[in-house]
Amino acid sequence: MLKPAYAIPDLPPPGLEETPAVLRALAKAHRHLAELKGRAASIPNQGILIDTLALQEAKASSEIENIVTTQDELFQANAFPENPASPAAKEVARYRDALRHGFMEQQRLGGLLTNNMIIAMFQALKRTEGGFRSTPGTALLNEQTGERIYIPPQDGEDVKAYMAALESFINEDGRSELDPLVKMAIIHHQFESIHPFPDGNGRLGRIINVLYLTRTSLLDIPILYLSRFITAQKGDYYRLLQSVRDTGNWEPWLLYMLQGIAETAQVTLMLIEQIRVLMAEYKQRIRDDHSKIYSQDLLNNLFRHPYTRIDYVQDELGVSRPTATKYLDELAQGGLLNKHRIGRNNYYINQRLVALFVEGAV
User: Fold this and answer.
1) Per-residue b/e over 128-150, b at no fewer than 16 CB within 10 Å?
2) Which regions of the chain does DSSP assign to beta strands (E)?
C-alpha cells in the first residue's frame, strides 16, 4: 500500500501563527469583503447574483481541472438543460448544481457545513451515490511529468476520522482565536490534503471556501469565488499547497489565499456595480419605451437569466405564454435583447450583461 509522506496535522495546526504580514493581509481582505457584502445588498433580487456568478465560478473552477467550455455553450446548456450539451458544459452545470445544493442545505441547517452536505455536493457534482474514499491507491501526480508529488491518507477509516475532525473545526463557534479567513485557508489546505473523494476534490474544496464565508457571516450569499484568481496563479497554488506539507511553514500559503480574497472581492465588487448600473439603465429604458409591459419581476428575469426563455418569463411573472412571448419580442425589437433560435425554441440574450462576463470581470 502507498505510504503517505505527510502527516495530516491536528486542527488548528501546531505552530501556526498570524504573523505581522498575515495580520496586514487580513485587514485588507476584510475591508474588501465588507465592501462586497454591502454592495451586493444593493441588487434588489439576490438570486440574480447567486445564479449568474455561480455559473461563472463553475466555469472558472472547472477550468483549473482542464474542463473547458465557452460562455455561449455554458449559457445555452443552462437555458436548455433538456438539450444535448458537451461533456464539459454538463460538468460545469453540475458544479453549479452542487454549489446551489450546498448553500440551500446550509440555510436549512442554520449555517452548518457538515460532512453529509459535502458528500451530497460530491454526489451532485459527479452524478454518483458514492462517498469518501474507502480503498487505497490514490496519489496526486504532476500533470506535465506524471511524477507522484503527494500521497494522501490511504486507509478509508483514516479518511473518515480526518474528515470528522475537519467537520468539527469548521463548525466550532467561539472556541478558536484564529481569524475566520485564516481558518478558511487552513480548512481548504486540510481538505485538499485529506483528498477524501476519488475525484472532484479541487472543485469541492473551492465550494467549501465560499460556503465557509457565508457560514461566518462575512458574506450573506455565496458570491466570492477564488477560482479565477487560482486559474491565473495555478502554479503558485499547487506549489504552496505542497510547500506547507514539505516545510510546515504556513505563512506563504495564508498570504496567497488572503491576496486571492482581497483581489477577488475587488473584482467582484466592480462587476456587481456594473450589473447594478446596467439594471438601472434597462429599468429606465423599459419604463420609458415599453411602459405597458414594465415590471420589476420582468427586469429581474432579464438579469437572472442572461439567456432567457418564454417559459421562464411565463413562470416567474405568472403570465400566459402569448403574453410572455409578446414581452420578449417587444424588448428584442427595442434592442434590449437579441432573439435567437435553437431547434424549435426561441431564446433571448441580454447581450450587454453577457459581455460583462465575457470581458473577464470575474
Assistant:
1) eeebbbeeeebebeeeeeeeeeb
2) 140-141, 148-150, 307-309, 338-342, 345-349
CB 96 within 8 A of CB 116: no
Q: What is the largest distance, in Å, between two alpha-carbon atoms of the chain?
A: 71
Half-sphere exposure of 237 (CA within 13 A, CB side): 20
Give the domains, in start order, of the chain with CATH numbers. 20-271 (1.10.3290.10), 272-358 (1.10.10.10)
Q: Kindly indicate the confidence band of residue 89, based on its pLDDT and cuts at 50, 70 and 90.
A: confident
What confidence score (pLDDT) does residue 3 get?
72
At residue 84 the predicted structure's pLDDT band, cuts being 50, 70 and 90, is low
Q: Does residue 289 contact residue 334 with C-beta atoms inside 8 Å?
A: yes
Rounded Cα distance, 126 and 137, in Å: 20
C-alpha cell of 5?
509522506
Q: What is the pLDDT of residues 94-116, one digit of tens each?
A: 888 999 999 999 999 999 999 99
* Grid coordinates given for 339: 432573439
Segment 184-194 shows an average pLDDT of: 98
- Crossing angle for the helix pair 46-64 and 71-79, to the nearest 10 degrees: 130
